[in-house]
Amino acid sequence: MTLAARKIRLLMELRRNGITDTAVLRAIEQVPREAFVPAPFLDQAYENLALPIERGQTLSQPQVVARMTQALAAAGAGKVLEVGTGSGYQTAVLSRLCRRVYSVERYRELVGDAERRFRALKLHNIVPRVGDGWNGWPEQAPFPRIIVTAAAPDVPGALVDQLAEGGVLVVPVGGRSRRQELLRLTKENATVREETLGPVRFVPLVSGVPEEAPKPAGRIQYSGPPGWSLA
Fold first, then answer.
1. Into how many domains does the chain fold?
2. What is the pLDDT of residues 33-76, one digit of tens each?
3. How far apart (Å, rounded) are the C-alpha atoms in residues 23 and 26?
4. 205 occurs within a structural domain
5. N or C: the chain end with fewer CB closer than 10 Å?
6. In angstroms, rounded to a whole number, what is the distance separating the alpha carbons of residues 70 and 26?
């Protein structure tokens, strides 16, 4: 089965599983997930699976990406803050829905690789940077929409503070030893309303920015579109 056919199959599966927002489905259709998948897993690019990437992180399951994006209601939002760039796949999906995406990632290596993918795919409305996601991006606040792609033990207060009036924050909350739940917080009249959207499983949201070790010789290789590489 070709990648195109597998993408169609995935989109149909997402619809069956409750993804009804046509703008979200269109964004997922427009973004080539194979460009964000390590080469050994290329044949699984359009399976509904989470896949490993560099630095012990993961490329989220398409169902989870779609679910979080739908909960965020990002279509037409002026700007979105994403905490946890990772491979850049969720970032790319968001870029199809809003004017600008500000994305914070603690690993410099992941930011560099994601930037090269964004350039190759001509996604020019993404602003990534290396930083501590717990602190958000105060210089660009407030944000109408904020999404967190790692699980925090509690909702980060700095992100709530950076949420605009009427804004939406989608964040997984929990730890390795306790159940993680996906939360949607909406700021209305200076108060925050919280909804629980169900169980999820994410890597933890870690504070601080680590010192980067030299890249190992056997680092994961990404496929990307034909004629394109991260080199």
1. 1
2. 999 999 999 999 999 999 999 888 889 999 999 999 999 999 98
3. 5
4. no
5. C
6. 12
Given the residues 60, 95, 103, 223, the one annotated as active site: 60
Whether residue 22 lies inside any domain: the answer is: yes
Angle, helices 22-30 vs 3-16, to 10°: value is 160
Low-confidence ranges of the chain (pLDDT < 50): 217, 225-231
Token output for 184: 């949607």
**Range of the structural domain that residue 76 is part of:** 3-200
**Is 60 a residue of the active site?**
yes
Distance CA 59, CA 20 (A): 22
The answer to whether 179 and 155 are in contact (CB under 8 A) is no
CATH number where 171 lies = 3.40.50.150
Q: Is residue 139 part of a domain?
A: yes
> In one letter, which amino acid is 218?
G
Q: Is residue 185 part of a domain?
A: yes
